[in-house]
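ok, trying the design again with the full structure, not the truncated one.
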């Protein structure tokens, strides 16, 4: 496994940690209600964790071949056309990911510079829950760039387990 693929896997694991934290928050909130109390800002933290989980899962899903693709169209093309279509799709994806990462960077920096805080029960500096979104998009840009290079070289980007994992 290459160092970059380890980074994508780490991103996937972090995504899973945020999903588990949502479950823990929900269970804690249920228990707290039974005891006549509440977990302050549980809904807010769960929402932040959901966003973090989604963005951090993007590079891992790309590496595992789990993003939606129109395989039927690719199969109709000759091998050269298939590769050209794959390069074009990856270029478009890289452009979108880079655009998203750029604006996420501006968004997080603006929140940091203006010392923006959440309006919920706990005044949380907004750049903190926005940071996983930025990290996920930056890692996705790296993954898309690696995929573009490997596709141009005629090599496979997706992990070998991706075919068996997505065979249903």
């Amino acid at each position: 496994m290459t160092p970059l693929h380890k980074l994508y896997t780490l991103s996937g694991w972090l995504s899973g940690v945020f999903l588990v934290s949502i479950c823990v928050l929900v269970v804690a909130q249920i228990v707290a209600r039974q005891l006549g109390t509440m977990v302050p800002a549980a809904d807010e933290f769960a929402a932040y964790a959901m966003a973090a989980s989604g963005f951090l899962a993007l590079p891992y899903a790309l590496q595992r071949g789990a993003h939606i693709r129109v395989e039927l169209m690719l199969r109709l093309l000759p091998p050269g056309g298939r590769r050209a279509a794959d390069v074009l799709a990856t270029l478009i994806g890289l452009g979108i990911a880079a655009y998203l990462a750029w604006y996420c960077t501006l968004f997080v920096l603006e929140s940091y510079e203006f010392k923006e805080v959440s309006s919920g029960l706990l005044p949380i500096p907004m750049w903190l829950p926005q940071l996983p979104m930025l990290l996920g998009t930056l890692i996705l840009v790296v993954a898309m760039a690696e995929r573009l290079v490997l596709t141009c070289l005629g090599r496979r980007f997706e992990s070998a387990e991706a075919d068996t994992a997505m065979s249903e």
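Keeping the full-length input from now on. The chain is about 75% helix and 0% strand.
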